[in-house]
Design brief:
It is built from 10 helices and no strands. The chain is mostly helical. It has one domain. The longest helix has 34 residues.
Amino acid sequence: MVGSESVPAPSWRVVLAVVALATGFVLGQLIGGGIIIGGGWDFDVAATPGSDIGRVAGQYGLGLALDHNRIPMLVLLAVNVPMWAGLVGVPLLAAKFRDLDWRRDLGWAMRPVDVVAGLAVGVVTQLLVVPAVYWPLADVIDAQDLEEPARNLIALADTPVDVAALVLMVVVGAPLAEEIVFRGVMFRGILDMEQASRVALPVAVVASSAIFAASHLQALQFPGLFVIGTVAALGMHRTGRLGTAIWIHVGFNATAVVAVLREIY
């Protein structure tokens, strides 16, 4: 990640983001899927930890024994590692072989203020902005359906070790890997491609946030994911530091985890 005189073209960086996403997906499917198949766990729904996880919430709510072959949270964490390796590994290889400078091209930097301000913005976005976005849709979207993916995931965290694995996965790993690709590589690349245009910032924000939201493969969650993508992109653009976006994402995810854990426990 040492600087270089050669600056990668913005369009090349956007392609790099797509390659990183594709690599992360393939590694996640091949290695992560192999771990699940090898362990004999069920993993029938690509966008969630598995179709049987929904039964966990129901059994837990009724006080029944969790008697089906659910995926342990530590295994679920391990399953995500190959995907994150693809997302982060591609930009790292580009830094080594193609003169991609993380500080210059991705805004790779962080200051103490990013932690405080980023967390605050993420919490406010989760508690106030996202509900405001969904409020007009209240008559057409069932709240239980909207919350189901998060509840199904958190229903697996029934021991302290599981909770720690959940935090590592949702509050640490996902924000770091996703912000590097979606805000650092993709958003900055699109912004630099359109830098001569007056609509450069809106185009970069909307495009990168829409792809970010769509990549989670959860239609009902798309508006909320688009919102946090937009807020993270604007936060990064305001400071010029990827650390701002990372901590906004951390605050957003952590708020959701804490809220659902409080209801379950």
